[in-house]
Design brief:
- By secondary structure, the protein is an alpha/beta fold.
- The chain has a single domain, classed as Metal-dependent hydrolases (TIM Barrel).
- Helices cover 37% and strands 15% of the residues.
- The protein contains 12 helices and 13 strands.
- The strands form 4 sheets. Strands 1, 2, 5, 6, 7 and 8 form a 6-stranded parallel β-sheet that branches. Strands 9-12-13 form a 3-stranded parallel β-sheet. A two-stranded antiparallel ribbon has the order 3-4.
- Helix 1 packs parallel to helix 11, helix 3 packs antiparallel against helix 12 and helix 10 packs across helix 11.
Amino acid sequence: MSLAPNRRAALAGIAATLVDPRPSCAEGHPAIPLGDMHVHLFFLGRKPASLHPLARNMAGGGATLVAWSIVGDLPWIRSSSRGLRQAGAPKPRAASAWLDQELARVKLHLSEQRLKIVRSAADVERALKGEPHVVLAVEGASFLDDGIAGLKRAHDAGIRHVQLVHYVRNTIGDFQTEAPRHQGLTDFGREVVRECNRLGILVDLAHCTSMVVRQVLEITRTPIVWSHSSVALAGKPNWQMVPWRARQLALEDARAIAAAGGVVGLWSLRSDVGATVQSFADRLIEMAELLGDDHVAFGTDMNAVANTPIPDYASLRRALDHIAARGFDETRLTKIAIGNYARVLSAAMNAREI
């Protein structure tokens, strides 16, 4: 996530804008629905949900499986000359209360938009068949500083995708844009990963350090995702680099995630992927060549990156058309467009032990 500061203005009310949520696309590959492992929609700032309803956006490009990521540490981060940085720490139960409030707003918007929430692998299958569904996700599990029991409460509330860290230090592990303190994953972080596996929640390692990636892969029973950023072709990103480079995933770590059956998502940050739909698509193709068609997906970070070549799902549809023009057949296109995310999400939910 790369969040503009003016999105911290007063909360805007939700004005329902109803559209037909069924996917539609006038040209290209309308039979292949789109998935997105990481998208935002806020209730404040210059692009509030009330003016940019999700159903209309999804229908504009034929997107049927998108992960709406609630920013779990939003009240405690601010923009700086070095990108987003921590500006305070949540008091006990404050992060849990924030998540509850945001989740209620998200659910109200989805209800008004007549969009369904993914709760099981059967829902993912429906999305693959063209019925629009939204995955409830959290970016930065600060709410778990209040205790591991919060993970089951989150699952009961419908959350099926949890990113362990973001920009605020928590009790789980180290993140990419600050000097490490925990030597990777904490003992509590290991407990969190195991509990995600037990409950059937997909583990997302975006923003995690390389050490955390390796440690999670040692203990997880199900494939994981790195929902959004890109793969660094040389060297290992570190916290002292410019923010977007610090946020890249080292190639060796990307390959380790792929070897464990996981998926890496490409964001739409202009300074990284270029200024056009074509440059974004070409970067995705490059990732597929490095990791294999089974291990890449879209993770646009939509509505949290400025001047992006992929501001909406109609643009993402054009990116898929460009990939098709490069010689990808329907099977390969489907994996990248939606199938890979659907596979790992279903695998996580199907591994639920209770």
